[in-house]
Amino acid sequence: MHATVGDKLVQHGRIVGQHDKVGEIVEVMGKEGNPPYRVRFEDGHEGVCSPGPDAEIRHKEAGRRVR
């Protein structure tokens, strides 16, 4: 998983009825775009994430998805 500042991190809900969490990557803390990432979520919460298989990156420049 590779990301740059400004990309979106989408954490998919794990339970039926649970909504996805969407946040903007504000800092890439790993080397060469690798996790961990500092993410600011839509509700204003900010945290450090190392996304798992239930997450995807939506790149800002092309709208492209990478899992």
Automatic annotation (TrEMBL):
Instruction: Tell me any Pfam family this protein matches.
Output: DUF1918
* DUF1918 domain residues: 1-57
Q: Where is this region: Disordered?
A: 43-67
* Gene3D superfamilies xrefs: Domain of unknown function DUF1918
By what name is this protein known? DUF1918 domain-containing protein
Query: What InterPro entries does the database record attribute to this sequence?
Result: DUF1918 (IPR015035)
Compositionally skewed regions (Basic and acidic residues) per UniProt: 55-67
